[in-house]
Amino acid sequence: MRAAILKAYNSDLVIETVADPLCEADGVVLRVLACGICRSDWHGWVGEHPKVKPGAIPGHEYCGEVVEAGPLAKWRKGDRVIAPFILACGQCPDCQAGLSNICKSQRVPGFGEPGAYAEYISVPHAHNLARLPEAISPVLAAGLGCRVTTAWHALTGRAELRAGEWLAVHGTGGIGLSALILGRALGARVVVVDVVPEKLSHALALGAEAAVDARAGDVAARIVEVTGGGAHVSIEALGIEATANASIDCLRTLGRHVQVGLPVGHTARMEINMNGVYMKQLALFGTRGMPAWKYPSLLDLITRGVVDMTPLIARRVPLSGASAELRAFNGPMPPGVAVIDDFAA
């Protein structure tokens, strides 16, 4: 099969023909229909993710068609499925409690094992997969697997966002746009923060009530003014110190900060305004992924038209175009996300 391989950090991926993947007993092999290009992939590409080494095939946001199923898998050849990026074991106490996104035996394609920047992918623990509804295109589905699921769980499973509350979103990349769209669907009022005017305009067009250009400074103070006292919930979607502190500082008393952006490498440790946390009695949540059992309900919201995630997808690229998209993460990005949908080019 054709696959894009990381040969050296910060260098173009190399397209090579490699052996087709093997099917595990409880897993499936998918023909990849589409795969999202995520900032988490970039963290691995630049060498800051400890599980990504030269020789890796990136890609953890994917959907595909079953071409082979193991004897313990419920899926059959021809089924079209979508995957959460966390493939939990299903047997441990955390999985049995419905907390599969914290499974200690989880496996994550693209981070320690071959990912979906390839024509085929082996997916173990196939009970994590969800059937892809006919109404959802593979390209849109590939944009859901990390960014949308993570944002949905951050808002509903961690912050418990309520209708009428103010939601601040720091960074309007894939996670941020997802939080904006889903937050609006939950009835929240949304203010967004970014440094790219085009992305702020895009967010306003998608229903944000206010947009703050962080280049002008005083982000937290401006959000407090816009919201009449501070946001109830704030999503940090970049994983850097400046936005983490702005997220905490923009909250009103008893507000909830959710750390969604990945702090890794040189951003793994930050200096945080803990006095603000103490004085305002804030709640700080970390979040990563979404329990697999929540997938069908999220897909149902999309298929019923309750929420429209199509504005998230901005660019469709061939496998050979993945490197250019990864390089683009080195600077301010244009609105929307990119998805690989052609694995022959």
CATH class of the largest domain: Alpha Beta
Strand content: 15-25%
Remind me, CATH topology of the largest domain? Quinone Oxidoreductase, Chain A, domain 1
Order of helices and strands: EEEHEEHEEHHEHEHEHEHEHEHEHE
Number of helices: 11
State the secondary-structure class: alpha/beta
Helix content: 25-40%
Give the count of structural domains: 2
Q: Tell me, what's the shape?
A: globular
Name given to the CATH homologous superfamily of the largest domain: Medium-chain alcohol dehydrogenases, catalytic domain
- Which residues form runs of ≥5 with pLDDT under 50? none
What's the total number of strands? 15
The CATH architecture of the largest domain can be named as Alpha-Beta Complex
Q: Measured on Cα atoms, how large is the radius of gyration?
A: 19 Å
Spatial separation of the terminal alpha carbons: 13 Å
Largest sheet composition: 7 strands, mixed
Mean pLDDT: 96
